[in-house]
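S.,

Sequence below, as promised.
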Amino acid sequence: MRIMKSIPVEKDVLVDLVDSKLRLINQDIQQILEKWNYKSATTFLYDARNGELKEAEDDAVCMRNLLDDRDALLVKKEEWSIA
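The prediction came back faster than expected:
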């Protein structure tokens, strides 16, 4: 059994780490959109779901996961700004 230890970290360091991760996520989102010639993730996901984009299933799943990750990080960041 592993025991997780927590260490104190300054909030500014956490915010910088989250910002870096958000930049990477946004770059990955942009790469998928450029690959399929889309400007909107919502439109891309809609078209992929409706079968208008053949062979886009893997990218659509990846896009959905990236958007979920981005949303979760933004919520965390918001929680830190309130605290």
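The radius of gyration is 17 Å.

Coffee later?
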